[in-house]
Amino acid sequence: MIDFSKYRKIKLVDIADVQRGKNNQIYEKGTIYIQVSALSNDTYIAYILEQSQALESKYVVVNAKTGVDAEYLYYVINRHIREFIHNYIQNINLTVDSFKHMCIDYHDDIETQKEFVKRIKCVDELILKEEQMIEHVNSVKKNMMEDVFI
Length: 150
Prior knowledge:
By secondary structure, the chain is α+β, with helices and mostly antiparallel strands. It has helices spanning 12-15, 70-88, 110-148; strands at residues 8-11, 16-20, 26-27, 32-35, 46-48, 53-54, 59-64, 103-106.
């Protein structure tokens, strides 16, 4: 049975391999990456590869260990990344070594991880639909304003 109340604090490095990205190396779909060089407020986020591709060395690459759902890890890293970067940033950079201090909330049960991802994706889809609707309504409004003031 899925129980979201059963989680613990754990160090990221206990459930994932963390290393500096290498220029021109191809990383597999599901690889999580975080910018660590020349950081600004809008770069305080983790990303996940939707397909295999090369990454620059300005990223740290995070790969989930066996028994850890990569998408789940992506979401829980993003839950903690802003506070972590705020605590460990040096000027405008993070060191790869600082990630040994990153703690996240973690559900050990893989089925709980998968259910968490399923539910979060549903919410993300609803948010996307709402954003598209807002974009459409703004477009209609813009066209109406242009028609009124010819």
